[in-house]
Design goal:
By secondary structure, this protein is mainly alpha-helical. The chain has 2 domains: 1-158, no CATH class; 165-249, no CATH class. The protein is 42% helix and 5% strand. It is built from 12 helices and 4 strands. It has helices at residues 6-9, 11-22, 31-40, 47-50, 57-72, 86-89, 103-120, 125-134, 151-158, 160-166, 218-222, 227-234; strands at residues 167-170, 209-210, 215-216, 246-249. The strands form 2 sheets. It has a two-stranded antiparallel sheet. A two-stranded antiparallel ribbon has the order 2-3. Helix 2 (11-22) packs parallel to helix 5 and helix 7 (103-120) crosses helix 9 (151-158). The radius of gyration is 24 Å and the shape is elongated. The model has no long low-confidence stretch (mean pLDDT 87).
Length: 251
């Protein structure tokens, strides 16, 4: 159970990391050996917990501080100079870093993965339980936090913003995708309407598709969107047999 004193609830993660560092097998590690040890052992310890709960930022910072002290120490129990900030070490190697995990961002990514499972598997026991309790009349992406939510729901719900910022509709039949409100152009950060649709009844993507030829209505697109947007829309492939629209990760 995760109660109000959350720092104490996750203290065991820091204790386990310290025990690993203090073990005899780490005393003679080279700098390269420490890098492997940190990535394969130390940063893997909180992974399961971070996949279920949103750790307080202070806990993540404490864990990173423990790992950074171990990385720079000159010998067992001896402090060393931190020649580089931890944030720089978390950069990709091609960008000059060492590829360590930023635990706060990694925590959010794991929780977003749980949210993605709720979207992809709405018939699972967890999805049905959370839906019945917190959003019985809406989908996960449109859900509200609600009153007196559990810490598990608050954690998964906190990652909803990350999903909303990077999910994009893949067009099948186009019936449920709104032209202006939804993100459905994968090559753009967002689809900004430059001109107002003359026919106000055309509010769904299906209105832009010729159902007989399964192709885009080029003339309508040219009278509706900017030239750049038209080119991006025309690059979206349409299948011969229409299927349901589905959400996918952009990038």
């Amino acid at each position: 159970m995760v109660r109000r004193r959350r720092r104490q609830a996750f203290q065991h993660l820091k204790d386990r990391i310290k025990i690993k560092i203090d073990s005899w097998s780490t005393r003679l590690l080279s700098q390269g050996g420490k890098e492997v040890f940190i990535k394969a052992i130390l940063q893997a310890i909180p992974t399961y917990t971070m996949g279920c709960f949103l750790l307080p930022k202070s806990v993540c910072e404490d864990i990173e501080k423990i790992i950074a002290n171990f990385l720079w120490q000159k010998g067992y129990g001896k402090r060393g100079i931190h020649w580089c900030s931890w944030s720089n070490l978390c950069e990709l190697k091609e960008n000059g870093g060492l590829g360590y995990r930023n635990l706060t961002k990694f925590n959010l990514a794991l929780l977003a993965k749980q949210g993605w499972r709720l979207i992809e598997n709405p018939t699972s026991l967890l999805a049905k339980t959370l839906k019945a309790k917190y959003h019985p009349n809406s989908e996960f992406l449109n859900s509200e936090l609600g009153n007196l939510p559990s810490y598990t729901w608050k954690s998964i719900w906190a990652a909803k913003g990350l999903l909303l910022s990077r999910l994009c509709w893949r067009i099948g039949n186009g019936r449920d995708v709104r032209i202006e409100e939804d993100i459905w152009v994968p090559n753009a950060e967002n689809l900004h309407i430059q001109q107002v649709v003359r026919n106000q009844s055309k509010t769904r993507v299906v209105d832009l598709i010729d159902s007989n030829n399964r192709s885009w209505k080029t003339e309508l697109l040219e009278h509706t969107f900017s030239t750049d947007d038209v080119q991006k829309i025309l690059q979206i492939p349409l299948t011969t047999i229409p299927h349901d629209n589905f959400l996918a990760w952009r990038g």
